[in-house]
Write a structure and sequence with these properties.
The complex is a heterodimer of chains A (about 475) and B (about 100). With about 475 residues, chain A is of the alpha/beta class. Chain A has helices at about 1-10, 15-30, 40-55, 100-105, 150-155, 170-180, 210-220, 265-280, 295-310, 335-345, 350-365, 370-390, 415-420, 425-430, 460-470, and strands spanning about 35-40, 65-70, 110-115, 135, 140, 160-165, 180-185, 205-210, 250-255, 285-290, 395-400, 435-440, 450-455. The chains are: A alpha/beta (about 475), B mainly alpha (about 100).
Chain lengths: ~475, ~100
């Protein structure tokens, strides 16, 4: 898709401004609520610059002039950046995230900022303070989350690709729900500078695109070490890996038995079985593997994520990030702490409050060892499980999510039921691995299903290669 | 299960003001989540080291402690403009005590 459009641009079959105008019109017309902010004037200016370069006969990058969108969790200079929260409703980002800066160097045309769950906490984009994003395949259903706006926008062709973020599946699961490709890089492969922090040891910027090839093009443009993110690195866990051949012939694919236990939708199970069979027919060797500590992955995640988020979100106290109605003049209270408490009570949503309290509890005196420390120990065990597995196989295949998209409102009053939907995506974040979700079928009711391809640390090329061979 | 007093204490530590209905709601919801999370106690972790954040094989990153331009980041004045109330180029807040 990106390459085709690039050729049309350089062959002057269409101008970047024409293309941008068309996508802006679609984005404005859409009723999916995929965008929090549409950046029309910026997009047209950026497109005009690309057209001028083409006119001068300059060579332009593959991504130049391609209409894109950015999850509203990433800082975009001069543009409102809300993290889908009322507490940042009036916050104008003073600088660009490194990812955005790199894309601008590649001729970014940004149509707008995509809707998501507030501070990237949720699994359905229903936690956005700006209303839920609807699934393009069935508008009564969720688009997935937390990068639901990104997935819905790409799936319904409101943008060609979107930059999302993945803390526990937030790029892969909405991609699966909306029938598009979602790619989560190795932790450290992409800079987090300018990404509004949720859980710092789990957060990673990822890509939602229409094809694996497109996701790879975008990943290659945004990856790399950044001196402003001390955890970004080019060095990854040095694991002995098997030789990768062309296509799937001769490669070994592990199927973790723990991923195929009870609680998985029948049609999802069948689609994944088909996906695995296709890999086998193309010459891959399929082996069953075991990741014995997987049963603890979700509990580990729901301790580490809230704990880190509770610390990261302490900064939102009504003092610094945009004007809010509870300010000094309007309060009759005399102390600063009252302003903090009232501001956070009024402007943070219920899921964010729940996680902040959960995290505060897990880190509080007397509970730290039983929760956070224990979770970090089990995290080591989960990583070792994956490390052992990747000494035997090139890739691991699994479902992206246990069910297809659910009805809007169905799980909103049952936070634990919502958390359980993350069961197949969080292990990858706990271990810091790269993974891809690719479309793997449609249910009888017409809802997309995603298959997950997990690779060893730094093995993005291998997941892209398998994804390109197997995507539907 | 958490008591309502515990919920109030946590909310206080987290700088969140809760109304009585919220205390009740979070007591039930957090209680259910904690029941689930407590499964972690079964995991055998004797002698297992804690993971060190998001990556493996990381080395410490050093830099000199000097003033530098952070890309296109705006000046302090621009950052202060985003505050709720500003007076004389400084952020104005209520007294701490």
């Amino acid at each position: 898709m990106i390459k085709e459009l690039h050729n049309k641009l350089i062959n002057k079959e269409i101008s970047a401004v024409e293309l941008t105008t068309e996508y802006l019109a679609r984005a404005k017309k859409s009723d999916l609520n995929a965008f929090i902010t549409i950046t029309e004037s910026e997009a047209l200016e950026q497109a005009a610059v690309v057209d001028e370069a083409i006119e001068r006969g300059e060579e332009i990058p593959l991504l130049a002039g391609i209409p894109a969108s950015i999850k509203d969790l990433l800082m975009t200079e001069g543009v409102r950046t809300t993290a889908a929260s009322k507490i940042l409703e009036n916050y104008i980002a003073p600088y660009d995230a490194t990812v955005v800066k790199k894309l601008k160097e590649n001729g970014l045309v940004m149509i707008g900022k995509n809707n998501c769950d507030e501070f990237a906490m949720g699994s359905s984009t229903e936690n956005s303070a700006f209303g839920p994003t609807k699934n393009p395949y069935d508008k009564t259903r969720v688009a997935g989350g937390t990068s639901g706006g990104s997935a819905a926008a790409v799936a319904s062709d409101l943008s060609i690709y979107s930059i999302g973020t993945d803390t526990g599946g937030s790029v892969r699961q909405p991609a699966a729900f909306c029938g598009v490709v979602g790619m989560k890089p190795t932790y450290g492969a992409v800079s987090r500078f300018g990404l509004i922090a949720d859980a710092s040891s789990l957060d990673q910027v990822g890509v939602i695109a229409k094809s694996v090839e497109d996701a790879e093009i975008v990943f290659n443009a945004i990856k790399g070490k950044d001196e402003r993110d001390a955890t970004s690195t080019l060095k990854h866990e040095n694991i002995k890996t098997l030789k990768q051949n062309n296509g799937l012939r001769g490669i070994k694919i592990g199927i973790p038995k723990e991923y195929f236990s009870e609680g998985i939708d029948q049609e999802v199970g069948e689609a994944i079985a088909d996906f695995i069979k296709r890999a086998k027919d193309l010459g891959a060797e399929i082996v069953e593997i075991s990741l014995p500590h997987m049963e603890y992955a979700l509990t580990v995640y729901y301790i580490i994520q809230p704990a880190e988020a509770s610390a990261n979100l302490a900064r939102y106290d009504g003092v610094r990030y945009g004007k809010l109605t509870i300010n000094n003049k309007q309060s009759t209270n005399n102390q600063l702490i009252d302003i903090y408490k009232k501001t956070r009570a009024e402007f943070l949503g219920p899921e964010v409050k729940r996680r902040i309290m959960l995290g505060t509890y897990a880190l509080s005196a007397g509970y730290y060892d039983a929760y956070y420390k224990k979770a970090q120990q089990v995290r080591t065990l989960i990583r070792e499980d994956f490390k052992k597995a990747f000494e035997e196989v090139n890739l691991i295949f699994a479902p992206t999510a246990p069910h297809p998209a659910w009805k809007i409102g169905e799980k909103i009053d049952d936070p634990l039921a919502m958390y359980l939907e993350d069961i197949f995506t969080v292990p990858v974040n706990i271990a810091g691995l790269p993974a891809l979700s690719v479309p793997a079928g449609i249910t009888k009711a017409g809802l997309p299903i995603g298959a997950q391809i997990i690779g060893g640390w730094g093995k993005e090329e291998e997941i892209f290669q398998a994804g390109k061979t197997l995507e539907l | 299960m958490l008591t309502q007093e515990e919920v109030k204490h946590i909310a206080d530590l987290a700088r969140l003001e809760l109304v009585p209905e919220e205390i009740e709601k979070y007591q039930t919801q957090l209680g259910r989540i904690l029941d689930y999370i407590n499964k972690l106690a079964e995991a055998k972790t004797e002698g297992v080291s804690t993971a060190d954040g998001g990556t493996t094989d990381l080395e410490n990153v050093w830099r000199t402690d000097e003033k530098s331009e952070i890309g296109n980041q705006k000046s302090g004045t621009d950052l202060i403009k985003m505050a709720g109330e500003v007076e004389g180029g400084q952020v104005k807040v209520k007294s701490v005590f």
